[in-house]
Amino acid sequence: MSRAEQDMTPLNVFIALSRYLVPIEQVESFLPEHARWVAQRYAEGRILVSGRQIPARGGATILVGPDRQSVETLFSTDPFVHNGIAEYTVIEFVPSDGDRRSMDFTAFLARQ
């Protein structure tokens, strides 16, 4: 897809919840590789916020993308998934407009 086509593609908002499939010690051994992967998604402007769940049984990410399939494909490249450390559930949602969303979130979407 060309950059012009990407600019015309509406972005949808997703919540991706991960669930660890292995003991936390194994999770932590892949954390540096996963952190680099996440940092790249921030650099691309895809992720709004991400972090570990409490208790540490997985993570949560809020991000944008053109459609569910592209987001699921994106997460399949996460080293956690690639190495059998975690799996993701992707939830698409429509953020409320106007007074029912923060100005910071609106600004994030505008940068897309």
From TrEMBL:
GO function terms (MF aspect): hydrolase activity
Signal peptide segment: none
UniProt entry keywords in alphabetical sequence: Hydrolase
Entry keyword Transport: no
The YCII-related domain, residue ranges: 25-93
Any Pfam family hit: YCII
Gene3D superfamilies for this protein: Dimeric alpha+beta barrel
InterPro entries: Dimeric_a/b-barrel, YCII
Highest taxon, organism lineage: Bacteria
Protein family: Belongs to the YciI family.
Name the UniProt record assigns to this protein: GTP cyclohydrolase II
